[in-house]
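Schema walkthrough. Field components (list of strings):
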Amino acid sequence: MVVTDPASITGAADSGPSAPGTAHEKTPRPPVKRRRSSAARREAITGYLFIAPWIIGFLVFTAGAMIFSLVISFSDYNVATNASRPAGVENYARLFDDPKVAVSLGNTLFYAVMAVPLEIVFALLLAVLLARLGRGAGFFRTLYYLPKMTPAVATASVFLLLLNGNTGAINRGLAAIGIEGPQWLIDPAWVKPSIVLMTLWGVSGTMVIFLAALKNVPVELYEVAALDGAGPIRRFFAITVPMISGAIFFNVIVLTIAALQVFDQAYLLFWRDQTNASPESSLFYGVYLFQQAFRQFDFGFASAMAWLLFVIIMLITLVQVRFSRRFVFYGGER
Amino acid sequence: MGVGVSGKSVGARVGRGTLWVVLIGFGLLFLYPFVWLLSASLKPREQVFDNLLIPRTIRWENYAEVWEQLPLLSWMVNSVLIAILAAGLVAVSSSLVAFGFAQFRFPGRGLLFGIVLATMMLPGAVTMVPQYLIWKNLGVLGTWIPLFGANLFGSAFYIFLQRQFFLSLPRDLFEAARLDGASAWGLFWRIAMPLSIPSFVIVFLFEFQASWNNLQQGLIYLNAGSVEGFTVPLGISYAMSTFSPTGGGHGDYQFVMVAALIVTLPMLLLFSIGQRSFIDGVATQGLKG
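Field assembly_structure (string):
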């Protein structure tokens, strides 16, 4: 059920000296181990006791919840009476019949394809500039991090006004340099760029991860390359990018998963009021799923939608992992 | 890091000057919405959209009146209490679990830790509905328990973070204490925990922020209750609706701006206290990759 692949992605699944699963022991067990086994058993019990909270939580709120969700997705669940009747694949069939599923999925994928590369490029640009600066970088890092500390509701309420097509500061600014800005929040074509803009404002989390990775690139590499006559752009693509490819890969995966689950900004800007006549191009998958679950209380259908999202996220991540094997470079010790 | 900058040639100085200009430019872009927000919060209604960064008329009354317009204090108290509970519980439970993984050998340890990491990939949407039903069947809907209850059982990223920290502690420390007759609990509570305060703080601050920002949970569990019972994100979302013309208001956005600013301040305060913790915490995320 739970795909353990991410463990190998993150490279942190190695759990020290006694990693179990190494079943192929070359030598037979020495008899000494038998005598120590009661101490080992005591240690094991202590270990299980310490991780017991997680085991309980996992069984109830993750594994249990997933099984529960799967059952609900095959039933017609009535919240009022707490009763459910089997519905076969009805809910899954509706995924194909309900045009809003395809629309919201399309919107979400479109947004992800636009947002993730822009976030990566922008964050990397900022990180490289800060790394070059050296002294004083800490000040800018703090400054750039402020948007990340701003609650989504505050960001949304400011951008709601900044992005106003007629009176908003962004269009006024564009008008000042002779560009007629779009109706960001009304024109269906500009709805997703609006949300991308808000996302980019909070790109500093990604930037900090890149900055940490850049610090681990040995300076000698740049010195040698410079002696060989490589210019700054050449050095960036020949040294920096390969040396931090692990961090790039990590950020791409994390940002993609986040983009596919966008909720807050889309909900706050477009779907707050239930009477809202927002353009359909602002209907994100996460928002539609939420509406089905907690506005229509159609738990069966919402659960089917959730499983579709899960499968899509898994597939996309799997493709990214496959693709990354070709170019991600892990330094010696990994 | 003097990457590519060697000596004090004129070219290098010009390059450094340009760098400063570019970085300050980006800084202004990042700061602009904050300044706009501050300025709009001080304006009378009809001037909110004039986009002047220095208000023509400063209306301090906005800051007094917002408390009558919205139960902002009540929202903040609710959110602070929930965030403290959520952050405290998850920090302690995650530390316990992390210590179990870091310190003791038991069959299945690698596999179980792999599962811990794998759960990070699970979209919240999959467990959103069944978790609601679990709380409903436990009869705790309408209480705060669903907002932090699951935090009693640790959380994957925090377990990972704390385990990394515990693994970095010298083994001799624990061996010595064990020889002195310390129990497993003693090793955890008297040695590991006091030493892990820096990463404990990271976990606490991260979860505090996450809880403070959690709109969806509020929408699911508190939306049906009284407005006074809202959390901050739910409350601001409510304010955005009630003051906007589409929601039947008169466009008193200055109050929304005041409220947005006030609920951002605790986060900025948190950041000013634990800046290093936040940035180190985020940077650690990348080290997994």
